[in-house]
Amino acid sequence: SDKLKAAHSTALQVNYLRAQAEQDLSLLVEKTWREANQALEEYQGLSSSISLADENLRLREKAFVQGLSTSLDVVDAELYLANIKTQQLAASYQYVLSLSRLLAVSGEMNRFPDFQAAALTHSLPTQQG
């Protein structure tokens, strides 16, 4: 009788632990998905900033050639462009990390090449210089 009660109690405890693990896993997947999505949105949002910084650099270089701007203005524009590109690369890195974690948690690591191929086809036109 005592052994039966102990076994029943252990089975109940295992069921609670399993339910807790499922809930924790669900929360981890949700959190990781949000992180990946946020990094992707940041990456995409920085594309317009890169376009503007490219145009600013082009204008500063023209102004410098015409004597209307200093070399310091051109260097500042180059540094600003490099800064934004670095931010975009950091966002890309965070996306890959989050996606890897998400695929690992969901047991779908073998699908990473699918996401990688899709990302390459979407990002090639915006990758310049």
Q: Can you walk me through this structure?
A:
The chain has 129 residues and is mostly helical. The protein is built from 3 helices and no strands. Helix 1 runs antiparallel to helix 2. The longest helix has 64 residues, at 2-65. The chain is rod-shaped. Mean pLDDT is 88; it is low at 124-129.
Jot down its keywords.
mainly alpha; disordered C terminus; 129 residues; single chain
Short account of what is shown:
This protein has 129 residues and is mainly α. The protein is built from three helices and no strands.
Tell me the β content: under 5%
Counting helices, strands and paired strands, the structural category is mainly alpha
- CA radius of gyration: 25 Å
* H/E series: HHH
Low-confidence stretches: 124-129
Total helices: the number is 3
Describe the global form.
rod-shaped
Distance from first to last alpha carbon: 76 Å
How are the SSEs placed, and which strands pair?
Layout: H1 2-65, H2 71-105, H3 112-123
Helix pairs in contact: 1-2
